[in-house]
Structures are given as C-alpha cells and as structure tokens.
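Summary for the steering committee. The consortium agreed at its last meeting that each partner would contribute one worked example illustrating the joint modelling workflow. Our contribution is presented below. We chose a case with several input lines so that the handling of multiple components could be demonstrated. No manual editing was applied between input and output; the record is shown as generated.
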Amino acid sequence: MRVALTGTPGTGKSSVATLLQKQGYTVVRLHELAKQNGCIDGMDTKRNSLLIDMDKLHKYIKKNFITNELVFFEGHVAHLLKTMEKVIILRCHPKELKKRLMKKKWNNQKIQENIDAEIIDVILCEAVEQHPTKNIFEIDTTKKTIEEVAASILKIAKKNFQPTKTYNIGRIDWSEEILKDFPA
Ligand SMILES: Nc1ncnc2c1ncn2[C@@H]1O[C@H](COP(=O)(O)OP(=O)(O)OP(=O)(O)O)[C@@H](O)[C@H]1O
Ligand SMILES: [Mg+2]
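What follows is the complete predicted structure of the assembly.
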C-alpha cells in the first residue's frame, strides 16, 4: 500500500514521518528520492527550493515500489503522484501554522504564502484533481501531538479502514481566517 503524506509546509509531515520511521514503518522522503534518482528539474531561486520532475518521479516509483507492504511517501508533492493508493493531507489552523513556520526562520513573504495556501486549500484542490475523493483523507493536526498524528495516520493507512467523518475531506475550513493577521 503506497500512502502519500502531504500538506502545506509546516503542518508536520517530516516530524511525523520521523516518528513513524522510529516505530519501524517504511518512509520514503520524496525530495531525497528525487535527488538520488535524477528527478530534479531545476531550482526555484525565489523560494530557494528544488523543482521536482514529477513525471520522472512517478515513473521511478511505479517501477521500484511494487509492493503490498505499507510504504509512506512524505513530501508536499506526494499527492501529485497518481501511484498513491491513499492520500493523507495534514492540515493546521493558520494561527498555529504561523508559529510552526516561524521556527523555520523563513522570510515573512514565504511564511505568508504558505499560510495563504493552507487557508485556500491548495493541496486538497490539487489532490482531488489526481485521486478519487474516497482515497483522500485530512487530519487536523492543530491540537494534536506528533504521536497523535502518527496514530491517526496508522488508522487511515490500514487496509480495512472504513472512512469515518473525522478524516473525510471537506470538513476543514479556515476561510474565515483569510483577512486576519496573526501577530507573532
Ligand atoms: N503536531 C505538532 N504539534 C506541534 N508542533 C509541531 C507538530 N508537528 C510539527 N510541529 C513543529 O512544527 C514545525 C514544522 O514541522 P515539520 O518540519 O515537520 O513540517 P513539514 O510539514 O515537514 O514542513 P516542510 O514542508 O517545510 O518540510 C517543527 O518545528 C515541528 O517541531
Ligand atoms: Mg518537511
């Protein structure tokens, strides 16, 4: 089972991925996989981030991860890969997200861009373009510890998981926060 762990930067993908790895689960870091296998397309100099060739990465994963075992693919592009059987989107209230992003010491513009992206559901919109909605799940991490987020992920990733309202898409709506400024 290939499970995408995606979400706006700062929602906690890497933190929870590290915990899942410690618990013995297989986690693939997509940016590392892309770098190691010639799937980098260039550099976004404005954002100081690598551009991944998604076609190449998709082909690489399709060829090399034919498995019945549970594998998590972590990264904010994970939902763009059609080979994913389930897509888990980590969400975070903009006020809390700002706190988490501030820890990254990014500039204000980059922080604001990501808060805006979270408010307008960018990742969810991209995910529904690629996957049937029944395969997409959202976890609100705002008040959850990393351990609790990991437990939710493991529940959803189970083969016989029956969708419940808690993780169904469309329940999270930060749109009222759009015009608010969140003082640090
Ligand atoms: N559930 C949580 N509760 C509180 N703080 C958290 C939680 N998850 C992550 N954090 C903190 O938020 C910050 C961002 O987390 P992390 O780097 O894991 O996010 P990310 O989604 O991997 O971001 P990026 O896309 O930039 O790699 C870190 O300082 C981390 O310790
Ligand atoms: Mg990360």
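Residues 7, 9-15, 76, 100, 103, 141, 144-146, 149 surround adenosine-5'-triphosphate (ligand 1) (CB under 6 Å). The chain has seven helices and seven strands.
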